[in-house]
Design brief:
Helix content: under 10%
Strand content: over 45%
Number of strands: 10
Structural class: mainly beta
Radius of gyration: 16 Å
Number of helices: 1
Distance between the termini: 17 Å
């Protein structure tokens, strides 16, 4: 095979105070895990046996700090419920290195003031999941303390 589809992604965390001012904005490359690559392959091929394959629909956060691996199927220590993805944007661009036209999808979710708060234990990880609890991607980042004085927007960008 000559063509390659190297999926890659990055999570951007945007922490805002109650006035809407950005207190922290940070990006971190993610790892698309084996289950996520399999999910994309099975959706592409129209896999018809077993549970239906569904697209990613939620983002979870947690406190685990172990580096992501291909074998990951969940977060190290999930905090709270998964948050629905509320915004999806698509775009295209030409990769400057390979000159290949690429597709970018940007998924966003908001952890409002009342969600995932614990001033004693900062958030350190996030993951993208589908409705069947398949982990697509996981990232570990520098600690972010989430309390009821902050909203945290998670913007996950995946390039195909």
């Amino acid at each position: 095979m000559k063509d390659r589809m190297d999926m890659a992604g990055q999570l951007t965390l945007v922490l805002r105070d109650r006035s809407g001012a950005v207190v922290l904005e940070r990006g971190q490359p993610n790892r698309i895990v084996a289950g996520g690559r399999r999910l994309v392959a099975e959706m592409f091929a129209g896999h018809t046996t077993g549970a239906p394959r569904t697209p990613v629909s939620t983002i979870a956060v947690g406190t685990g700090s172990t580096a992501p691996t291909d074998a990951d199927t969940m977060l190290g220590a999930q905090r709270g419920d998964r948050i629905a993805i509320t915004k999806v944007d698509y775009g295209t661009f030409t990769d400057p290195g390979s000159k290949v036209d690429r597709v970018r999808v940007q998924l966003s979710a908001l952890l409002d003031f009342t969600v995932a708060n614990d001033p004693a234990t900062p958030l350190r990880e996030a993951g993208l999941f589908n409705d069947a609890n398949v982990l697509y991607s996981r990232v570990v980042f520098q600690p972010v303390t989430k309390t009821d004085t902050f909203q945290l927007t998670l913007i996950w960008e995946i390039v195909f």
